[in-house]
Amino acid sequence: MSARNAVRVAVPVKLARLRVWVDKGRHWSAVDRLILWSLANQPSTAGELAKVARIPARLITEIILRMMRFGWVELAAAPKGASFRATEAGREVVETFETLPPVTRRQARRISFSMEPFAWRAYGLRDLKPYRPSEIETIEREHDVRRLVIDGGWGRLSSLELYAAAEQVLTDDEELSSVDYSASDAVDQFALFTVIGNSIKGLPPEPAEQLIAAIRRAARDNKPGAPMKIKAPGRAAASVTTNDVVSTAPIRSDDIVLSGEDHRERLIEILRQARSRFVMHSTFLREDAFIELQEEFGRAAKRGVRIDIFWGADRDEKSRKANLDAAIAINHRINADRSLRGRARVHLYTTGSHSKLLIADATGRATGEFVAVVGSCNWLYSGFDRVETSIVLRHPHAVARVAQEFAELIFDISTSSEAASDLTSLSRTLRSHDAAQGGEAEVRLVRGDEHARLMRLARETAEQSIMVGGDRLGVAAEARTIIPMMVAAERSVQGILCYSKPSGPLTNRDAQELAAIARQAGVRLVQIHDRELHGKFLLWDDDHVVITSLNWSSADTRPDAPQGEIGLYAKSPGLAANIRCRLIEGWPALDPSRKTQLVEESIRPPRHRRRRRRNKTKAVKKVACDEE
Fold first, then answer.
1. Would you say residue 626 lies in a domain?
2. Would you give the distance in Å from CA 180 to the centre of its chain?
3. Are residues 143 and 203 in the same domain?
4. What residues make up the domain containing 163?
5. Could you tell me the CATH number of the domain that includes residue 38?
6. What is the pLDDT of residues 137-175, one digit of tens each?
7. 277-282 and 306-311: which strand pairing?
8. CA 95 → CA 49, 76, 213, distances in Å?
9. CB within 8 A of 248, min separation 6: which ones?
10. 624 lies in a domain?
11. Which of 187, 302, 483, 595 is the most buried (most CB within 10 A)?
């Protein structure tokens, strides 16, 4: 193929233009630490160190001079002449750190890069030049251009992908701290490659093999003007590692929050302990619910805590409008409150997610520790008068996974969100924390369709019992929960599904008929009257627990909305047995040993309790139960 017959191939790329904060400065090597360690033990000259280490004395001198600028080394008088020795600060650094801490300064700068669609590698604009679509159209008028297009489009980059890509184009002495999304963007453009025979001009350094193969194929097989479709990017760089298991110490029973009142107390406790950051996602909002907690929010803000509140109501236009009105009303109250003004805000867009999340630096322990809460409680809607289920996470790697999912949930709606950037940065920081290896317990984040996999896991592995709880009983219950429990019941596994009320087209009569069918297969349906149950959970045997926002017995998940429902799977010795026992304390009919009744079972409080419940919270006992 001659130059006159050269074929140009246009490949879709992402052009990212980011404003970032980087920590710029010296990162020390193992040799640097060895030199400082030697000077901490005995003063020496550069020549003496050079002989021992077999490194040029000039290089030793440069290293020592850098350390002197940071106060780690000083001159010392000795009989043999001027020597160098470690200062008190230098000796402390050697004793404290296995690798010398970098000495950096934080600064803002702008970076731009192109990202190819096969291996998600980022390149500077000199290595992979981007072209606007209009520029490609102009070139097409005079040259043979074969286009590649992504089948279905590749969407926008995720928050984690932007961070990972930005790190690839930084210099060796820079470390990414955060990305300012409000001053950043990523747009679809093209890279242009010229194919002459077997030669491809315009390739970036170390190109992906898939990129080269696609260019050759387009040049060889594609007809001019007919685009060649390629598969959507694998998004390997965007893996949020939600399926990664975190091994940790056994989960404490008081980190499983059940009663409404306990949820309120835990929220207040976190607000009072928060030092700098508090981020919440409540599916629904209610102005009165905020008013009841406004004083606590104000105290936290007065201490300098930045508060971001998100909501996800998206069932229909009426629901969206009601919650938007509540968000506006709450923001009016925030702006009228001197303590909250400028430090707290409710965002005025719905995330479309049913998840309930909370993250704050509020452990009451050392600075820099964070907690996350995942569960069923609508923090700024609930009256805290119903049984909820939430789990408090303290392990830094577990909190990191929640923070990243929260970030992606926000970023999918608002690519300029400062909170999404903060949560991604927090996730990256917490992942780098050293954590105790191993442990008797393990936790794993559960998103969207992953809930169905866990129900199947319970169906296949349960040996004693399966208990499912949710607010409503809907048409999805039969396929999602009841049939899997029926299958397990064939192995004499006791199955219980508890709910508060029938939902949607399912009537009370339908619920009774469904209960009768399930009962014949060894599965009990138990209705908790007076809407006392709002918690969503799956328990099997003694150790396995899933606490989530998903109504197992009524709702379904969407494959295109993984953050629509977020929960947590935990395997910890006796944890499921403890939760089951605490629930049975409040509702004895949930006892798996209870004999199956001839009619649909239900739990209705005594009449005097029903009257009193309007004004007083019914709390589930928190006493730990002995393991079975």
1. no
2. 19
3. yes
4. 7-23+106-235
5. 1.10.10.10
6. 999 988 889 999 888 677 667 888 889 999 999 988 888
7. parallel
8. 20, 21, 52
9. 395, 398, 435, 436, 439, 441, 442, 443
10. no
11. 483
